[in-house]
Amino acid sequence: MRNLIPLLALFLWACGAPGHVDEAAAQQTNPDRTPGASTAEPAVAADADPQHPLGNAAALGVPLPGARPDLWRQVKPQDLLYLKTRHGVTLIEMAPDFAPHHVQRMRDLSSSGFYNGLPFHRVIKDFMAQAGDTALVRREPPRTKPLKGEFRFRRSPAQTMTLVGEDRSANTGFVKGFPVASQPDALAAMTADGKVWSWGLHCPGAAAMARTSDPDSANAEFYITTGKADWLDGSYTVWGRVRAGQNAVRQIKLGAPAYPPDMIDRLTPVSAMPAAQQPRVWVMRTDTPAFAAWLDKHKNENGALPEICDIAVPVFVQWPGSAGQSETKVEK
Q1: How far is CA 91 from CA 41, 49, 163, 166, 175, in A?
Q2: Nearest alpha-carbon partner for 286 in 156, 159, 96
Q3: pLDDT, tens digit, for every residue of 156-198?
Q4: Which of 120, 181, 263, 285 would you label with 69, given CA atoms 20 to 30 Å apart?
Q5: How far apart are CA 229 and CA 207, in angstroms?
């Protein structure tokens, strides 16, 4: 009987997992960079909630939103997902400008409670944690229809991109605090709509939709990257980014599936929570001279910036009951 349990779990997984993420290159390592590592991690300060160790904003040299609101963008509650597991809370900002249909799908399913009680059924070290499959808990799959891939989006030069790396075919930089790649702005003058193609990058902390080999098969399964997965860029829809609690994602039990797997206790839009329980998140604006100065701090002795996934955008998080405290977290 003991030997049958893992076999049963594997059988249920194989029969009920329509979506997957390609890990063919997941084990390829770069000797110059450890997947998921950050060169911009702040010193950790003491905090009332040990699940959310927050760095000190003053130590980072970044003025807080209360002092310089012009340097920050507050995330709308309807664009913020609250993910609770046994490891803590993770806050994910959704990007409707990049993938409007996938964001709406996540809003709809999370608002209905669909994800509550579902397992992280596929978790690969330094790659990603995937959830949304109902087979392991013998629940009916969602009745929603597959989504057309939103692997790229059209970006106007007016939607400022702060460059970090330049290339002939695609630049890398930040748009609203999200790491993206994009055709050069100069090409916009030669397109009918005055825009260029851009796409979200699979840096650690990217939230994206799983799918089968059919590009338009994404439905309800999503994943959060725990390492850099650049081979997925432009082929899977990135619809959001972790703004706080990435450490909780890294602690999710490994396995495909693990037995027993870690579960989603709750996944809901912050806008659906009582006002007194809502965390508030501010992301440093990446289109200001202050952010340019922040980038300058990351340059090496030769004046070169690190690879974009090694640059953390400052995030200020105000948890319920912590009003008036100076708390911020630089997450990757």
Answers
A1: 18, 15, 26, 30, 19
A2: 159
A3: 999 999 999 987 779 999 999 999 999 999 999 999 999 999 9
A4: 181
A5: 12
Whether residue 274 is preceded by a cis peptide bond, meaning omega within 30 degrees of 0, is: no
Count of alpha carbons within 13 angstroms of residue 238, beta-carbon side? 26
Average pLDDT of the residues of the chain? 83
Which distant-in-sequence residues (6+ apart) come within 8 Å of 220 by Cβ? 19, 105, 109, 114, 132, 141, 142, 144
Q: Which of 55, 71, 21, 24 is nearest to 218 (CA)?
A: 21
Compute the distance between CA of residue 303 and CA of residue 308 in angstroms, rounded to an integer.
Answer: 15
What does pTM read for this prediction? 0.83
Specify the residue for token string 């939607």.
159
What mean pLDDT is predicted for residues 324-329? 38
Q: Tell me whether residue 283 is exposed, middle or buried, using C-beta atoms within 10 angstroms of its C-beta: 0 to 12, 13 to 18, 19 or more.
A: buried
Q: What token pair was written down for 331?
A: 């997450």
pLDDT tens, 305-318?
A: 999 999 989 998 88
- Rounded to whole angstroms, how far apart are CA atoms 31 and 10? 34
Question: Are residues 198 and 180 in contact, defined by beta-carbon separation less than 8 angstroms?
Answer: yes
Cβ–Cβ contacts within 10 Å for residue 4, how many? 9
Other CB atoms within 10 Å distance of the CB of residue 141? 15
Q: Which structural domains are found in the chain, ordered by start?
A: 38-330 (2.40.100.10)
Confidence of residue 320 (pLDDT cuts 50, 70, 90): confident
Question: 200 with 179: CB under 8 angstroms?
Answer: yes
Distance CA 61, CA 41 (A): 13
